[in-house]
Amino acid sequence: MRSHAEAIRLMEILEGTVMKDLRSLLQWARGFDQSHSPQSKFGGLNFTLSLVSLVACEVCGFYMAGAYQHRRSQSPNQVDSGSYSIEFINRYFPRGSYFKKLSKVLADFLRHDLVHGFGSGNPKIPFRMSLFIRSDPQDQIRAGTQRGKNFLALNSIALAEHSMSAFEGMKTAVTKGQDVDLIRNIVRAKRLRIPVSTRVSNQFEVVYQEACKKGLVLPTRKGQKRPQGEEGGTLVRK
């Protein structure tokens, strides 16, 4: 079945890109000592680990939901993509996950805060949040008060573990091929062509031509230079 094979291939691509990076970050984050000081010149990867986890949730949700928001929107670049994360978390995160109960907070607040400010904070928010690292994924959240506001601290390792578990659940469903709607949605999203602005295309082309003229070309798998004009993929398998 062509659609089934196409859906499996998509999951393999995600496995080799965002999930592979997430596993790498998770391994490094587990290696940090619990007494890791905020004054250290090295970060604990708590922000980055949570950010990549939420990116993974969004991209999985995009395919799981068939990119329905993009397909229905007149302006695909302005859709509320947070809904994809919410649907993916609600469907595939393990039972008992506090993150499942916080799906909207994660998608519409935390991810936005990390992407656009890397946790720099907004004083008008009626609550406070932080991220911490604990190797035990069962240690998901901590609650308290801080500066007169209700406070939640989330374990980035637990969020990453739950995100990976959710991906595996979706991957298993795709591999078995019994969820026809899921496979159909993945193929729809995979075949969707979201337009790129003319300015982006023009800027890319200017730098591409300059790199080619200077001989800054990538070798092919056979050790040959990439010919001028040859198209490359958006995602690079690692």
Characterize the structure shown.
This protein has 238 residues and is mainly alpha-helical. It is 55% helix and 8% strand. A hairpin with a 2-residue loop joins strand 2 and strand 3. Helix 3 packs parallel to helix 8.
Count of DSSP strands = 3
Distance between the termini: 27 Å
Instruction: Characterize the overall form.
Output: globular
Helix-and-strand structural type? mainly alpha
Strand content: 5-15%
Strand order of the largest sheet: 1-3-2
The number of distinct helices, counting runs of at least 4 residues, comes to: 10
Give the proportion of residues in helices. Answer: 55-70%
Please summarize the sheet with the most strands: 3 strands, mixed
Low-confidence spans: pLDDT under 50, at least 5 residues? 223-238
The oligomerization state is single chain
- Write the H/E string, N to C: HHHHHHHEEEHHH
The Cα radius of gyration reads 20 Å
Briefly summarize what is shown.
The chain is mainly alpha-helical and 238 residues long. It is 55% helix and 8% strand. A 3-stranded mixed β-sheet has the order 1-3-2.
Descriptive labels:
238 residues, mainly alpha, three-stranded mixed β-sheet, 55% helix, globular, disordered C terminus
Give the arrangement of secondary structure elements:
Elements: H1 2-16, H2 18-30, H3 46-64, H4 68-72, H5 82-92, H6 98-101, H7 103-117, E1 128-132, E2 141-146, E3 149-155, H8 156-176, H9 180-191, H10 198-213
Parallel strand pairs: 1-3
Antiparallel strand pairs: 2-3
Helix pairs in contact: 1-9, 2-3, 2-8, 3-5, 3-7, 3-8, 5-7, 5-8
